[in-house]
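Batch job 17 of 40 flagged for manual review because the log was empty.
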Amino acid sequence: QARLVESGGGSVQAGGSLTLSCAASGGHFSLNAMRWYRQVTGKDREMVATLTIGGDSSYGPFVKGRFTVSGDIAKSTVTLQMNNLGPEDTAVYFCNADGFSRQTTDWIPITLWGPGSQVTVSP
């Protein structure tokens, strides 16, 4: 079965930087877009950044130019460079992907989620 795995999370002091990476593996699939979401317990999950196979990128309104998403959708990898982090960025960050899976002779739509990676920013 196809799966996503995040890496690069951890703890950092306010003003510091972290880079998150995500890769998909484990099946026959073709992805159209990969995204980063984040969530604090008890609050709604927020879209952080999106990267499409056409190279278009977009960000949530709270990013304010601090983050950069890059990657190779055809190779099922995406990276989120986060700079000037603040305590308000503390959350579990999830990798997400949309595309198609060849589970039979036909391609069917799929949505994948990683298990999440904790990012903690100290004052």
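Reviewer: the log was empty due to a logging misconfiguration, but the result itself is present. The radius of gyration is 15 Å. Unflagging and moving on to job 18.
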